[in-house]
Amino acid sequence: MKLSKETIDYLIKASEGHKCERVDCCVNLVAIADLPSRFGDFQICGFVSPCDGKEHTALVRGDVVDKENVMVRMHSECLTGDVLGSKRCDCRDQLLESLKQIEREGEGVLIYLRQEGRNIGLTEKIRAYALQDEGYDTIDANVILGHQPDERDYGVAAHMLRSLRVRSVRLLTNNPEKIRQLINHGVMVKERIPLVTKETRYNREYIRTKKERAGHLFGDEAGITSVEEIERLTNKESS
User: Fold this and answer.
1) pLDDT 10s digits, 18-64
2) Among the CATH numbers 3.40.190.10, 3.30.70.420, 3.40.50.10990, 3.40.50.720, which is that of 5-115+152-238?
3) Among this protein's residues, is 152 annotated catalytic?
4) Catalytic-role residue among 90, 137, 150, 180
5) Contact, 192 vs 127, CB < 8 A?
6) 3-state DSSP helix/strand/coil percent for the chain, to nearest 5?
7) Which residue among the candidates 61, 118, 152, 162 is catalytic per the annotation?
8) Which of 59, 94, 183, 193 could be joined to 110 by an S-S link, Cβ 3.0–4.6 Å?
């Protein structure tokens, strides 16, 4: 069962002119339409941030309104990987695997955030690529260019989930920072579902950097899913 017209009208009406107190830049839900795809039948939701004009989307499978334990993937835009098929990262593989898992689940949400290059922008990301060609890893390349290692903010994603009235989530991710930020923005994360993709000679260093320097969970740690482990991971910095 998909979102009904009555539900869509209600969600859009509730979002009109809304200003969020939880985040610096909120979003408004402006449209929902059917999106049949090679991964199944979804509905696509269009969100706009009034403060910066960015447009974000969510692909919804099934009626997730007021549901608990909804399978969710937060995916940041990657033109080079998602669209052009770059082998330098695992972004496209994670995107496709997430859509497959949500389709198998029969219900879920994929949030697509306009945060290219860990939110440094496409041109800066290409400049970072050039530094990586010289031997720097992804973190050092960003820092050399004057950026933080990762400038993404998931407050907007939390607001999108609230706009869809998702009550709690099972998050498809290897990145504990996504869990921490969602919880800090009031989203209840019940489970972490590992998102394991194939490592290649092209993305091996990229994945190694994510694991060893950014704390992403791979290999033996990939099976951590419990609420207790989520609490441990999100409280790690304060202990």
Assistant:
1) 766 655 668 899 999 999 999 999 999 999 988 788 999 999 999 99
2) 3.40.50.10990
3) yes
4) 150
5) no
6) 40, 20, 40
7) 152
8) 59
